[in-house]
Design brief:
Layout (H helix, E strand, L loop, with lengths): L3 E2 L5 E7 L4 E6 L4 E5 L3 H9 L3 H8 L6 E3 L1
Antiparallel strand pairs: 1-2, 2-3, 3-4, 4-5
Length: 69
Amino acid sequence: MERTPVSSSNLSAVGYDVDRQALEVEFKNGAVYEYSGVPDGEHDGLMSAGSKGTYFNANIKNRYPFVKL
């Protein structure tokens, strides 16, 4: 999945597959996680958030199942 670079102190890039509702998050430390069952609106919210890290922590982390890639 193609990831888009983001401006964040903690996140490096974000990718999304609308058909699978899969969100990939690449962190500054190089770790990549895929979150499943993430609605398109959640991805839109993350990408438009003033603070991507704050949005991620409040709305995605610990709310959706994930695997480390």
